Structure formats: structure tokens, C-alpha cells
Fold each of these.
Amino acid sequence: MKQDAERLVSRPDSGRITAHEARVIAAAAAVDPRTVARYLAGRKVASTCGTRIAAALREAGFPDSRFPPPSTEKARG
């Protein structure tokens, strides 16, 4: 667990999110910060958690290539 948190803490120019940002994402996604760390490390998380984390990352302005943004196409009718 501690190793996951340490992986998130980074130098300002590394492109990774900080531990504080990970906690903000966790709060926005309503998940444990360790789940965010697992998600960012590419490990398996529950699909609902992954979807909420991806949405929180997009909302915070972080690109996330694991889940594409929701489609904006209108249904044909």
C-alpha cells in the first residue's frame, strides 16, 4: 500500500499526479485512494470503480487512455 502511494508522488515535470491529486480523484470517484493507486498502476479494479475513476480524472483535466470519453453521438430515431 505504501509503495502505491509513493508511486503517485512525483516530480512536478514527470506528468504523474501527486498524492494530493490522487486523494481528490478518490473523493470525487467515491473510492478508496488505494483503488486509485491500483487503477493508475494498471492493476485490476472493479469495473464500476474504474468507470468512476476515469470520469473523475477527465473532470479534473487529466487524460485517461484506458476509458474513452463518453460518446456524444445522438441516437438515430
Amino acid sequence: MSEANCTEQILDVGVGSRHGSGSVCRLCPPAGPNLPSLTEQALKRWPWLRALGSGLVALFCSHAVIADSMPRQLQAVSSPLAPVVASLGNATAEARLDFARLLVEALVEAYENELDPSIFQRRRNAPDRQKLARWHQAVQPLLSELRLAQANLYVASSVSVHLDRHQQVLLLIDGAPLWAAWPRIDAQIRAERDLAREFCQLHPCEQRPLDSLVASVWSPEGVRGQWVLSQRHPPTWETSAGLRCEFRDMSERADHEALCRAVVRDLEMLADALEMAMRGGERIQWTRLALESDPGLHLHQVIVNEQGDYLRLAVPALDRARVDWREAGRWLRARVHGEPAAMATVVRATNRGR
């Protein structure tokens, strides 16, 4: 059967999507000495087979696109484990096994901590408790999978360690994949840094992980800025980074300044996360940026495109200050692309506080 005769379904999923301008699904029989003639005879005798095949391919492709268009959590920060994993290419089987064992043990501990009853007891209002209960239900199967992988490591005949294109660590345990997905992004860097140090104490590392890889470098205290007072504008705190925050008055000057510093810190962290996502080939739509908070988990999801893909970060100041996302998106785009940008008013006096 020739390529032209293959049953084909073309699905237009939009220019610039993760598929490009469109996806093509084909249903073609495998090549064989007698298959083309037999296939043509069957189609001539039963023409309804072609319609059935087209329908099946359309159904298959539609499910594939629906599954692929589901929102995804994007990798937000560079992993301190990346240089360690890169050094494992020529490592011994014992070293790879030790790394996998340490990683899975750390993941199990992290997810077990999520089920700590004391966390549930600290949630006083009903909505937070409901969110936390749903989170507990989601954690249970993940924890079971990790415990199974932990047991399989003791009897595995083959263990390999890889980095995917999003710089996420992937274990293959006798061919079964296990991605290192942490429950909390704010604890991930600390856990991976400690894990890297522990592994490098057991085995020589070609490139030791550096503290500069840790995302804790973002500090509100390091933000430079000054107050700007004008008769035509509300009191404004402007920063050297090109961001400013407006306030109704100067009655809580120290608190206002601290809030703006925290907003700048969160935006700087978000810019670095967006830049990393773009380097990994992810699609960022600057006018689609939006923030969703989860008070029960103290984390935030920054929506980055129309598919609903998101970065999960701890950016409480962006939620508390009710940031103007049109201005923030303009500044973030320029910051990520290394372009100059006009001063962006990301907090306005009319939107301030909750």
C-alpha cells in the first residue's frame, strides 16, 4: 500500500502550538511482500473498510490531541542534581544504584511529610481543609509508586539515570521509568542540594554541585529602590530593575517598601523560571500570564499559555499585592529576552492589598 493510500487524519491544532501548525496521524499497514495487493483487494470488495479506518484514526487522533493539550507543570528551576547526573554517564553500576537509592528515599520522605496529620490540623477553615484532603488523596498513589520503586531497586538488574529535555531527573529501573517529581518546589532545591552533597561524599563527582545553582539567591533585601513623590501621582517606590509600586499614602512606609521589595523578588524569580522554560522549548504567551493561588499548600500556579501550562512557585507577594499582570507581563517579556523596557507599574494604589 503506497503512502498516498494510507488512511490519514490531519488535525489543525493551531499555529505555534506544541504540534506546530498541525498534527498528522496515519494508519498504514506494515510493509510485506503480499500485503499491498491483499489490502487493495479487500478495499475493493468491502469499501466500507476505508470509512471505518478513517473513523478509527480520527477517534485515535482526537484522543491523542486532547491528552496532549492537558495543562502541564513546567520545570521551573535548574536542578542542583543536573551536574551530578551528567557525571553518571561513565559511572559504575554501584554509583548509579546509590544515586537512585538516595533519590527515591528522599522522594519517599518528601511525600510522607505531605501526609503529616499536623499539617491538616493547622488548617482552620473548611476550604483549606478540603483542598488539603484532595491533595492527600493525590499523594497516596504517588507514594505507593515510590515505595514500589524503592523495593524494586534492591532486586533490579539494571539502573540508569538520565535528564530529560526539561532537566528533570529520570530513573530507569529495569526499564521502568520514574521521574523525580517533588511535591513542593520550595523544598525541591534544598532536598536536591543535600542529596547531591551526600552522593558526592560516597562517590567522586566530576563536577561538584555549587551553591550558586540554588534558587535561594533571590532575596528581597538585595532589591535596590527609592521613594518618588509627586503631586500628580500617588507615593511610588521605584526600583533599579525597572519596576515600581504605587500606594495610597505613606502611613505604612516601611511595610509598603517591604511589600514592593518582595514583589520584585518574586518577579525576578518568575523571570528566571520563564527563561528556563523557554530554553526547554516551552511556549510562553505573555498576555496570558495569570496567577492561581492555593492557600492550603502555600504554592502558586503561574499560567503561561492558553493550554493552561503552568509554573508552580512560591510567590506570595504577587498574590498579596494584586499585581497588574499586563504591566508585569510586559516587563517579564523584556527581562527574559534581554531587552530594555519602560518602567512598569506592577502594583497600583487602587489594587493594593487584600
Amino acid sequence: MNRKMPYTQSLEDLLDKIEEIGTIKRKLSFRDRADTSGYGLYVQSGRLPGGAIQYMAGGRFLKKMVFVREADGTRTIKKYQPGDWELKVKYTLSLCRALERASKGQTEWTEEKFEAYWAEETFDPAIVAKVDSAWQEHHSQLNKVWHQTSPEKRDELVKVYRDELEQEWPTEFIETQLEKTAHAIRERVIKGIKTAYIVGYMIGKGWVSPEEAAGWNLWLGDLIVGNIRSTFKGTESRGTAFASAFASVGTKGTQVASGSGIQAYEPSKREIVEEILRTEGSNLIRRDFRNPELLGQPSLSAQVDYFNPTDSQYLTEAVLGARHFDTKKIESILKTLLKDNYDRYFKAAKQRIISIH
């Protein structure tokens, strides 16, 4: 495959990211370069005669992308096999950027940040016990707070935690991305994010002080470092960095508590669509039979091809629970069938879900 630029914007972005990965790798030490393949993507680059640079990306032995950047800035693709490997490019670039920041050391840190990072990492067990006691006292309400935290909101909390590490604490971010440590700390991190959020909520309610929450987060950070150390003897991570990331998560909980009290449950789109199917299923099927021009041949009057069903057949199977449906597809079918009434059904179903949480 030999093609000249320009390409589509998505392909341009892919080439830009691979170039940046290769450029950063050339600046890193040999030890750090080995860590850039933590997600299983290997990027190599080398200079060619005339000032051109060749970039290769893919697996350890099998390259999926090979292109050359000429001295004048034009790019020529020599090989391109689209695939799942492209999903690793974004994360590999984030890892490389963190490695680059870490390689610069702590010279760009403020004096306050430097001193906090290297301060003696000790937490008071009495403070941890006090926070735990307050938690037990309000256990029922705090469980409700977490239960009413939607899946999307929980994903946002994970992002807050990850972004804090990536942007502020590159050493810790890098070590948590290594294959040998990522699995060891996963459950601890997820549990830590939940507890940090709840303790942040408790600050907003006045049940614990910010100082007590800080002690709790430092304890969480110490647990993470202990998990990393169990699989990576050469770790340089410090609990202070993880405590800072958990504190960022806790801020979200404080905002909920000091704002509207218990966070209103926000159901996912799939939950709402399932509610529409559950409560309106038989009516939807009858509407389909009365208007066969909308969804194609009604399911009961034609042979069903499971792998290539008509929209009518797909809807019937979803209503009967005979198919694990795709949310986007069933939503499109409902919009076609219900037309202008879809928003009304959607809002009513959403309100029913919220009312029972």
C-alpha cells in the first residue's frame, strides 16, 4: 500500500499520535523506552537517507502500520492493517507523555508540592478508625448515596482519579499502567475510589473533618503502594500521590452533599429503554402489526432469521427477552414506531425508574 497525503482526519490523527510516540521514545532512557509498550503496542522509528524518518507500529514482531515522513513533511504509508491495535494508540501516547514528564524529574514542581511529596508518610490509625466509625453511624444513608450514583457518574469518578495521577504524578501513573501491577491493584483502586467519594460526601455533611478525610486518603494511598510493592519490587510510587488522586474524587462527593443533598439517581439509556419494553411491550407489538410499513414484515408472519432479523422481529424478541439487544438499535426501532411520541414515553419511563430509587 503506497499512498500520498492527505488522508481522512481520523487517519491523520492516528499518524500524528504514532509520530509523537516515536518522538518521545527517542528522548527517553533505554529503561523508560521498555515501559512504553505497557499496553502491548510497539512503536519504532528510525532515520532514513535524505532526512526522512520511518515509523512502525503494531505487535512485538508483526507491524500493522509502516509509514515514512519525508524531510518536507509529507507522509507515505507503506503498510496499514486496521484493527484493534489502534485502540491502544491513545493510551500508549498518554503513557509516553507521562514517562516524558517523569524523566524531567521534579524540577518543575512548586516547593510546597515537593515538600508534601517527600514528607514522612504516616497516617494515624485513630483517625482511620474515627472515619470508619462515622461511616458505620450513617451506613444506611451512605449506602443509598452510592446506590444512587449512576454508572456514568462512577465512570466519571474513575476518570477524575486517573487524570489526577496522569497530570500531576507521572511516576505513580506509569507504575499503575504496567501489566504486572495493573492487575494487582485494580480491585483496591475501585474500592478506594468508592470510599474516597463517600468520605468526601461525609465532609459535606459535617460528619468528618477535611483533616480526617486527608488521613483516610493517605491510608488508602498506603494500601495502593503496598499492592504495587508486592509485584514490583523496584517501585518508586508514594502514597501521597494516590492520596491526592483520592482527594480529587472526594471533592465530587463533597459537592453532592453540600449542594442538593443525596444525588438524584440518573438512569442509563439502556435502563430507560428496558423500562419502555417492560411496560409497553404488548402495545408496541400491536402497534407494529397495525403499521407493517414501519418496521417491515411482522415477526409472526415470516420465518425468523436470528442473525439477520427484520426490525419487527428484533423488537418482538427484545420484548419477549429472547434476545440480548443492542441499545442503539432498539432505540432506533422505538423511534420509528412511536414517532413523535417517543420523547413522551422516554420521559415517563425515566421518571418511573427515578421514583423507585
Amino acid sequence: MIEKLDKFLDVLERLLEILRPKTFNVIARLSAITGLGLIIESQVNIFQAILIAIFEEFIAKSDWLRSIVDGLADPSVGIYVLSISLIYHLLMSLGLEYISIFKARVPKVPEFDLYLSTQSGHSSEDSMLQLDGPIYSFEQWIEIPDYKKEPEQPKTTNRPHSRLSLELLDQMLEDTTVFPGSLGRGRLKSITNKSLYRERASLLKEWLGYEPLKLSLSNEGEQLASDLRVQLEFPVSKHLDIKEPGVSLPCKPEKSETQYPFIESLHDEMFKSLFNSELPLRYFLKDDHHVITWKIEKLQGGTGLDARIQLLFKVTGPVSGKCTIFCDQLPRPCGFDFQLLPSSSVEILDQSSLKNDDEFNKRYAEIVSVFKDD
């Protein structure tokens, strides 16, 4: 209601400024004099008599002209002109002043603009943002073969007298695994991980393709905004996934099965809980929606603020979201809808990214660089 009233007063003020030239006093006086003249003339008929006399003297006698002149004897036209001139003068002289006084009495509220931007500097315009990308395609990973350990080359040494001790040491390191936190030492034969390529594929499908989005809020009004809370909501969709930076990444799959993923999973959940409880920017799932909340103590008028944490988004299709801003100075929360669009760039990965160690390590390094906690 306050926003609509403020806009109406702005439109009315601009309209009066257009209708108020510098010579508005002269226009009002001339209009008033014209109205008074029409009223007097309707009663005295001096100008009408002069007009009829001149016409009949030089042209001819005309009953039609006399009938028209008799119709002008009504003073209502002059009264209308005089009234309009007085109203015009009052509006031009007092209207703008009263509008300014009334606008000053209207409670001022903050005016917010929220932006999402990518690393390349692209920001949301017209409530739409297209991500930089690229989108990764895994369509060539339909049939992934088993991993087969390559035959080892025979070892050579320039010290023949130590060959037996070296072979025994290698055998001990290969055949023995120490369980962390166990009461003693156990022995486990190292087994070739035949699912190596499939584990690599699973890791890349889940973690590759995220990019950070920066959240920015500006207060375009003059009023201080306090106890701010920004809430973004996205419906759960196959085209969207969100993660926090600094989250514990899974280790690279090993060629021998000696990892304990349950330890990493537990650490990841503990870290995520700690992350969400201590930072002003939080992400969680609620009622089939991705929810992001950002708490701000205060924001001065005419200033802006960037969120310290940049959440990581993976968008593979158009996603619609809703933003709601809560503030003590707002009579009610304000909100708007926006849309995230996927990148137009698509990169197709073949199985060399799984079989070639250097290629896989390159992709894994990309993931680490995106998720590192700055």
C-alpha cells in the first residue's frame, strides 16, 4: 500500500511539473480576465452591439447573426473559464507544496535489489541468469569395462646382496593393512579394484560441473534496513543441485581396495552440520525445496553487500526460483521470481577421462579447485 501511494504521488508531482511553466501566473491572470470579460459582456452586450452594427453597416442585415449573439448572453461560459483559471492557479501554486509535505509524511521503507552473478561477471538481468558452464555430457559412458591391473615390470637393483630383503619388504607392504583405531594389527591381501573406472565415473558424474554463484544485495532507498533475512527457494529438480564450498570431497578411487569410505562420509556430515550452524549463509533441504537463507544485521541506505560464501550450483536445465526479503522496516516481506538457465556450452567426456590417469587427475583437480574453501 505504501509503495503504491508513493508511486501515485510521484506521478502526480511529475504531471503538475509538466503543466506548470514559468509563466503560469500570466496564464492564470489572462484566463481570469477572459472569464470576467465574458461574464460582463453577457450582461452589458457592448461588444455584441458593436459587432452587429459593423456587420449590418457594411454587409447586410442578418437575423441569423442576431440569433447567435443572443445565445451568447448566457454568463455560464465566463463562469466556467473563471473557475478553471482559479483552480489552475491553486494547483500550480499550492499543489506541489502540499504533495511535498504529504510525501514527507509517508513512512520511508528500504528498497532492495538482489543479484546473482557468476565468476565471469555475468549478473542476473530481468530476473534471469545464465551460468558460464560448461555442461558435461556422459553419454559415452554407457558400458564401462572392468579395470585390469597392468603386469609389473621385474625390478632390478645394483645391490644383489639386498635383493632378498627388498623383496620381503615389498611383500609385507603389499599384503599388510593396518586398520585405523583397531586393537591390533590385521593382515589383508591387497585386491585389485575391478570397479575402478566405474567408481571414477560415479565421482565425476556427481561432483563435476559445479560453479560458484555470488549473492549480492543493495539497499537503493534512504532508510536503514535492520535484521535482514534473504531467503531463496528452488523446487527439487533433476536439473539443479547445490553444494557448499569447502565440503569434504571423496578420495580418488584407488587401484587397490584399501579405503574406508564410511569414515569420509561421517566427516562430511559433521563438517556440513558445523558449516550450517555457524555461518550467516545457510543451505538446507525443506519440503522438497532447496532453501538458502542469508542473515544480515543491517544495511545502510544507498549501500550494497556481497555474501562472504559463494554456494556452488550445478544447473543442467531451466530452473525457477523465488526470492523473499524480510526486514523490520518493511510492512510485509517483499519478493520476486527469477530463473537460472544452463550454459549453452556442452563438453562431451569419453572413457579416456576414466582410463587415462592423467586425464582423470586433471578432472579431479578441477573439482578440487572449485570446492576449495578460500
